[in-house]
Design brief:
Helix content is 3%, strand content 62%. It has 435 residues and is mainly beta.
Amino acid sequence: MTIVATGRARSPANATRVAAVAVVLVAALAPPGMAQTPRSCQVFVDSTGGSGRSIDVGGGFVRTFQSGGIWAHCVGQDTRWYADSAAWFPDLSRFDMVGRVDFQDSTAQLQSDQASYYLRDERLEATGNARLRNRITGSLLRGPQITYRRRVPGIRDSTELTACSRPTVEYRSERDSAGAEPYLIVGDCVALHGDNVATARGRVTIDRSDFHGVADSATLDTQTETGRLMGGARVVGGDSSGYALTGHAIQYRLAARRLTWVQAEGNGAATSAEWRVRADTLQFDIRDDRIQAGVAWGDSTRPSAASVTNTITADSLVIDAPGQVLQEVRGIGDARAASRTDSADTGEDWVAGDTVTARFGDTAAGKRALAEIVAVGAARAHYRVYPTTDPLGPPDISYSRGTRITARFVEEKLARVDVAGKTDGVYLESRRRRP
């Protein structure tokens, strides 16, 4: 950026005096050696108002100050500038604008209370009620201060925006239709890279109607429609979805700006209205803002899926829940499914095997409940049996082994257990209480 010329005075009455100031300004803005350093912008001062002065600071440098308003643009570029007053520091390669600053180029439009333009790296530092709108995508960045690094051949290939002190970003993609809902991003510091990538750190939140994300840091790429939350990460579905996912880090994918896939890594947990799933790593498909299916695996945290009365554990879990209605959970590798009669029950019934499949259905009251458990491979089953003659007394114990065990439930109560293959077992009758 080099300032090379001036236009007319804004006020005809001050034309002669302002023109004289402008001549000094032009001379000062082109110090020795400046012409040998090509820049993206050569500033042409279109008009000025008020008064100006200049100070010779030695070394061939003259600092120039102008008040009463200054209008300018970059020669041959789609740019415009305005500020109530301006100052040029050639020894620092810095151009300052103060009061109602308004800057626009082909990519961005920025307003602030004051701004400084650094010529050496084409960097604009705006402070005080700073507001920058991306003219291509419509994204809007607001905060106490914004740093705008312009796209300049030979310096950088794309624009870079950074802002700290908890700025707010309404983030949009260039592919969005008019009026599309933006991502609302807030963090201690936020950076926008080009037109499609946003990063943030420090108490980050990302919000849309379909999800709410929280983390220590985050990235979002609207070009690849992917994102990542890192450090205390949490994703909550929309108000009607009723699910939440947490982990050390969460990756996610989007399609047509809607959440389609999430993966929690490191102490992962997922909760819905009726179930909680825990594992080192959790992965879920999302459609229509609801969980459809998932997988859980890991070593340090054994995968488990639990409700108030049922718990399934295994080396890995496969979950089928179309429309976020649980249909089936398959436990693979040293699997076990346990159930209790209610939350106050201190004992449990269980079925175990190399693999265990638990299927769910609706009760007469419309409650989602366990309907069937199938264990295959080294299958075992342990159930308590309460005789009808003494339902409040201590239960009998049934323990069975076989190649395949199937337990069926009716209205949340065990109705039948079938054992197939090489079978054996024991039935232990408890000592009855005397009448």
